[in-house]
Amino acid sequence: KKAKSGNERYLYYSAEMNASIAVRLQLEHDLRTAVSARQFLLYYQPRVDLISGRIVSAEALIRWQHPGRGMVPPVQFIPLAEESGLILPIGAWVIDAVCAQQADWRRRQIKIVPVAINLSAMQVKKHQVLTTIVDALRNNGLEREYVEFELTESVLMDNPEEAAINLRAFKKIGGALALDDFGTGYSSLAYLKRFEFDIVKIDRAFVTEITRSREDAAIATAVIAMAHSLNMRVVAEGVETEAQLRYLRKLRCDEIQGYFFSPPVPALAFEEMLRTDRRLPLAREASGGADTVL
Ligand code: C2E
Ligand code: MG
Ligand code: MG
Ligand code: MG
Residue 203 C-alpha to ligand 2 middle, in angstroms? Predict the structure, then answer.
């Protein structure tokens, strides 16, 4: 395509854009067959309690093993799946896969923890997902506490009244409800309280610089205080360093998730953590609280 002004950068940009549109179209095409071709798998990332140091939950994170492109990260295909509606069958696969995995762990008597499932706005709007969850739990003989749900503010945006009703339905059929990526949207926690979230996950964006940025530290402090006053637990996302961990502990954050303890790992590796009861190093004993290295 010819640039009107003869601007080189425009030409370059345009060519790049066309390439990325072609890639997108190809990916969307491939996405259509990915569920039936069994190309998805789940990784699990532990969430760790800052007082006991123990794994209290895990987040299921989808991975796409593309036959030609290798592992495609969710940022590259979840938006496509949402735009095309493919998130409905993909999301249903995630729910089934989590429940089948939990049933397998239970059958083999591994001490298991609830698994959190990420839900897109479109899934929450369709009541079909409720049936999928109820059926998946029942078919695998699981109680509802085995699954938790993570939702972002986008779920509440276009129709808060309807969202409130939907979320109440999720609370009836599953375990805890978490508000994901908090701080990246525009809502206040006080406003969000009426949606009955049990957990607030502070977005990684505020955790990364928490020991260096006064602003980020102030935001985390305020979120934790407010969440606690509203009876919600707080999870910090993307904790990568011991310094961040210490800081969050000082702020009385309840749980952390991040590379410092573990990245998302395949089911077998997560199972090994459960089996060995892996804990945060240096965590204060829940009982005594005598030694607080962290
Ligand atoms: P999310 O739900 O906020 O998940 C947390 C993301 O942060 C994950 O990225 C995880 O790998 C990453 N992460 C965790 N700890 C650290 C850390 O210490 N440092 C850094 N740099 N990153 C960390 P991932 O797995 O690439 O997933 C990205 C997003 O894709 C998720 O964000 C979620 O919004 C979406 N997603 C993943 N799986 C599903 C799914 O099954 N369904 C839906 N609807 N969305 C999903
Ligand atoms: Mg999440
Ligand atoms: Mg998140
Ligand atoms: Mg996210």
Answer: 10
